[in-house]
Structures are given as structure tokens and as C-alpha cells.
Amino acid sequence: xxxxxxxxxxxxxxxxxxxxxxxxxxxxxxxxxxxxxxxxxxxxxxxxxxxxxxxxxxxxxxxxxxxxxxxxxxxxxxxxxxxxxxxxxxxxxxxxxxxxxxxxxxxxxxxxxxxxxxxxxxxxxxxxxxxxxxxxxxxxxxxxxxxxxxxxxxxxxxxxxxxxxxxxxxxxxxxxxxxxxxxxxxxxxxxxxxxxxxxxxxxxxxxxxxxxxxxxxxxxxxxxxxxxxxxxxxxxxxxxxxxxxxxxxxxxxxxxxxxxxxxxxx
Amino acid sequence: xxxxxxxxxxxxxxxxxxxxxxxxxxxxxxxxxxxxxxxxxxxxxxxxxxxxxxxxxxxxxxxxxxxxxxxxxxxxxxxxxxxxxxxxxxxxxxxxxxxxxxxxxxxxxxxxxxxxxxxxxxxxxxxxxxxxxxxxxxxxxxxxxxxxxxxxxxxxxxxxxxxxxxxxxxxxxxxxxxxxxxxxxxxxxxxxxxxxxxxxxxxxxxxxxxxxxxxxxxxxxxxxxxxxxxxxxxxxxxxxxxxxxxxxxxxxxxxxxxxxxxxxxxxxxxxxxxxxxxxxxxxxxxxxxxxxxxxxxxxxxxxxxxxxxxxxxxxxxxxxxxxxxxxxxxxxxxxxxxxxxxxxxxxxxxxxxxxxxxxxxxxxxxxxxxxxxxxxxxxxxxxxxxxxxxxxxxxxxxxxxxxxxxxxxxxxxxxxxx
Lengths: 266, 418
Description:
The structure holds two protein chains of two kinds.
Chain A: H1 2-18, E1 26-37, E2 40-52, E3 57-61, H2 68-75, E4 83-88, E5 91-92, H3 98-108, E6 109-112, H4 124-134, H5 139-152, H6 168-180, E7 186-190, H7 198-215, E8 218-223, H8 226-229, E9 234-239, E10 242-248
Parallel strand pairs in A: 3-8, 3-9, 6-7, 7-8
Antiparallel strand pairs in A: 1-2, 1-4, 4-5, 9-10
Chain B: H1 7-19, H2 22-59, E1 64-69, E2 89-90, H3 91-100, E3 104-119, E4 122-131, H4 135-138, E5 143-146, H5 151-155, E6 160-163, H6 165-171, E7 181-184, E8 187-195, E9 200-201, E10 204-205, E11 209-213, H7 214-221, E12 234-235, E13 237-242, H8 248-262, E14 273-277, H9 278-321, H10 323-331, H11 336-370, H12 381-407, H13 411-416
Helix pairs in contact in B: 1-11, 2-9, 2-11, 2-12, 3-8, 9-11, 9-12, 11-12
């Protein structure tokens, strides 16, 4: 445990040194989002600016109705801001059409949802292959990459199991494999442990932490759960459509047990 | 980079989705199957009927024109085949036409009435045709036994008869007829031959006939009915065999001119005879066939329409049921075009499966029907291609709206859909 904490500390140190050279993976500038509900305008976001660098492990926190989900939808390219700009991996995505956005989601973003959203009657490996189908990856390479992704989340022995034959924690691990199979710039996790018991939840958080530490994956949690936030190294708080807090986590909780885990470097 | 998925992937996804709801898919595609089977059956039967009719006409002799007395009324006025009144054709007409019309390969004439046949205790009532010797050639109908009427029989008005198969079986069930004497309307005739079987057709039993020399019929067997007031002998039909079908207009015009002049018709009088060609008869039967085709086609169209609506309905249900799946697919990078393509291909796959089932059903139907009739169902490869194309088109047309609807779903709301 002590060793692991040291690992994180050294990583943070490295990052702070390197920050000047690194381009941000997420650069949100003065973004607003206004919904029209009948005659009433709802200001979901009222000028949000936010920068996230590659390799960060971040939690975006806020109560329901704070604009947290709206921000996540915009960060995930599922929605577009009313005004302001959003640079994802250096590319302005705030004015792209639906097809372009789909392409960006396919290549730059890996989603993990609270309710897993796996395809029923479809094996684990085929679920993980789905993003690669839309990326026009050939069947053979697809299978190999999906297998590697499932092995990375410790499900190398469950490739042909269907979601109904897997536990909740295992299903969420399939979803994580699906999120990282196309090597996205960011992984967006929306309450990933919300449907899990605490033991499975800890396993999932361990996987995220290891992906972050060992592969340098950028992981952004959107949550209202302080326990999840305590596993990250930075907490961004949002309320009433504005960012009201942005501080580092000095002593993150380590979810992984002490024993060494199988190697799954990128 | 186009974010469209390959067609094989899409068909795979479609088959998986269809397989997930087999019973529902089957019930949906029954409509298409019925429509397609109707198309296949009607094409197979229609082609078979056409083939049969063509065969019948070919066996009646090729490039044949027939001239009959009176005017065959057409159109809404008189019913088809109702004849005009007192006109008739004479032997003189025949000789004039035969001598003067160009582009004729052969010609023949007959005088036909009904005769009562008797041999020992057996009797038979059939048509008796007095014919010229060339009749056999012109009608492409030869004796299978003995010989046909010859010129010398005609010249000497001999009482000789060539029997058709029906009257042959009636009178001589187990006896060699050649040289036997039969009585026609009480007059003795010597049997010199028997015609090969023509079989039954839509024209009736063609073998219920016997042939005697034309002169014998006109002057000895039917002297009263075969004589015009002028004293001239009457013929029932003049046959002209043309050198080719392309000379028909010239042949018809020449024959018409000669006959109008001989019948002393004024320029504004209508013809008192009719010239019938095989082509015309073929067209008449073609028209009957196409009415039938139209009728079966309408049934097919209606069931395809209903089947298509069924597909649209089931696809709309499917889009609603799979809203979350659509949301997820959009989140992981499916473009609107890819989603639309997926659902379109699913609809097309569904209706093509229905089409293939319909093809099997239609072939079975056509073969089943033709077991009970005289002609064969002919299943052409084009019909299969047409049927598959048709079912694909139905799937495409009725799948478009549900597929567009799926492609336009908002991924955020779709993911939240319960």
C-alpha cells in the first residue's frame, strides 16, 4: 500500500514538472449551455472554463441539477455548447456536425456508464469489438485488440461469456475494455460504481487507477459520490452551472490490493 | 474517413437482431412470402400457359391465314365471334384467291359440317370436313395410318374418308380400319387412313373430325347446304400459307381486293368475310393471359404492400425497443448514416428472407397447380431474380422511415431511455 502511494506521488511529481511542455487534452473556454424548455430558458452551464492534461485522474463533482451531466455530455461530444469553445486533443469540436462528432467519439473518447450498456446476446469480446467496427478495423485485428483489452481488465478467461453470465463488476470491466479498446484520448466514466456493491466498486476503481498509472490513460469521473472522488488526484466541483472549486487530492485512496497484478501496459 | 461499416458486418448485425426475435420475424415476413410466392407462381404458370398456347398454334401450321365468310364482330357492339348474316365463300372465290394472291406457299379449302358415322353396330357423331389435298400440309397435320386425301380422290369425287383419332377409336376400337366401309349420313365411304392425334386444346377435341374430298362433300354428302343460290359450291374456310409472316399485309390486302371485287362490294361497304391470322389469335389469347396475369399481379402487389407495412411496423417497434442500443452505438462512434444503414439492412434482410421463403412456396404452388392441368409451370431464372429484387425493394422502401428515425435519435436521450 505504501509502495503504491509512493508510486502516485512520484507520478504527480513527474507530471508537475512536465506540465509546461504538455498540451492539454481538454481545453474548455467560457462554455455556456442553454436549453429551451417551452418558453423557459434553462442555463445549464453559465461560463465554464476547464483544462485537463494527459494522464490526469479527475473527478467532476456536483449535486444533481448542477450542470454536471451537461458538462459531461459536452466533454463526451454527445452535445455541443451554446457558446464558447472546446478543444479536445487540440481539435475544436464545438462546431462539428453529427457525423464528425460520431467520428471524434469513436476515436478520442471511451465511455463507461453507470448501467454498463452492454449489448445483450452478444459475447464479451464482441461487445468490446463494437467501437472497432465503426472504426473500420478488420475482423482479425479487431478480435486481437478486443482480446488484449479484456485481458487488460482481467477478463481474459471470459471472452465468450454473454453479459447475462457475468457479475455486475465483470460487466463493468467489459465496458471498460470497450472504452479503452480504440486507445481514446480520454475515458469518461459516469458514476461507474453506482450499480455495484462496494467490493465490485473497489475492483473497478482499482482498474481505473491502474490504467491511469501504468498506461497513462486520462480518466474523468463524473459523480456525486465523495468516495469515488477520493480515489482521484483532482476534484472539480460544479454548482449552478459554474465551477466552484478545483483542488488536488493530497492523499488519494488506493483501491488496489497490495499483491502485484498482471502486467497490462499499453 | 467514412465511418460506415461494411455490408458483411451490417448483415451479420441484422441476422443477429432478427435471430433474437425469430417468431416475430417469421410472422412479419409471412406477408412478403405470400406476395413473392404469388409473383413466382403467376410468372411460372403464365409462362407455362403462353408456352402451351404457342405450341398449340405452331401445331396448327405456321404462317397461316384463314378466310371465313361473314364479319367477325369485335369490340363492345357484338360479342367476339358473332358472325354476320348471309355471306358465304365459294369455290370460285377460293380458286381466284389461290391463283392471284402473291407470296403464297400453299393453299387449301374445306367445307365442314356434321356427319353421323356408323360401322356395324357402332356410331359416332363428329365433324366432317371436305378438304383439298393440300389441307394436310397447310395445317401441318399428317395421317398416322394409310394416306390422306389425294388429287385423284377430289377429281373423281370418291367416297373415301380419313378418320380422326376420336372417331377411329369410336368405330374401330380393336380393328384395322383401312379398307373398311363406314356409313356417313347413310352414304357408304371407304376408310383410307387415320390422322395422327392432335389432342384436346382450348379449341375443343381436335380429333373429333373426319376428312373426305372437298368435291365429295360439296356434291355428294352435303349437296343442298353446300350450294349457293348462284349454283356455285360453298367453302367454309380458305387457308393461305404465306411464305413468311412479314408478307401478311400484302397477302391480306390482295385477298381482300379479290374477294371484294368478286362479291361486288361498293367502296363503303364493309367486308362480308374475315381474314384471321394466327398472330391475331395469339394476341387474343395473350390478352386473356395478361388479364389473368394482372389479376394475380394485383394479389401479389397487395400482399407485398401489406407485408411491407408489417415490416415497417416491426422495424418501428424494434427501433423503440433498441433505443438504448442505438444510444450506445452512437456514443461509441456510430454515425447517423451507419445507424440508418444498419436498420435498413435489417429490414432488407428480413424481407429478402421472406422473399426466399416465398420463392420456395411459389415454386411449390406452381408445381402443385400444374399437376392438375395440361401444361407445365416454367420457372425462369429471371423470375427468381425479380422476386429477390422485389423483396429487397420492399424492405428498402418500408425500412427507410424506421431507419431514418433511428438515425436521428439523440444519443443522450437514447442512453437515458428506460
